[in-house]
Amino acid sequence: MPASYCTGCSRTFSSTSAFDLHRIGNYTRHQRRCLRSQEMSAKGMMRNDKGQWTLPPTEKIAPWYVSVEAKMLKASGY
Ligand SMILES: [Zn+2]
Predict the structure, then answer these.
(1) Which residue of 49, 53, 57, 71 is most buried, as measured by CB atoms within 10 A?
(2) Taking 70 as the threshold, does the pLDDT of residue 60 lie above it?
(3) How high is the pLDDT of residue 31?
């Protein structure tokens, strides 16, 4: 997956899913903002050796991440 750079907080994320996870608030009310490092850590997000923020290793927050994994298992004949 390509890395995603956020112009809002100048952080880089290892995937778009990780990027999405750090943006919170309501779009229509223009209340979108970036999570603080502390808040991302609280969600279980971590930084990899490239300094990119990654999703929590055991993903319980983003169901789409799990479903991608399930598809991969299916594709491999599981
Ligand atoms: Zn950001």
Answers:
(1) 53
(2) no
(3) 85
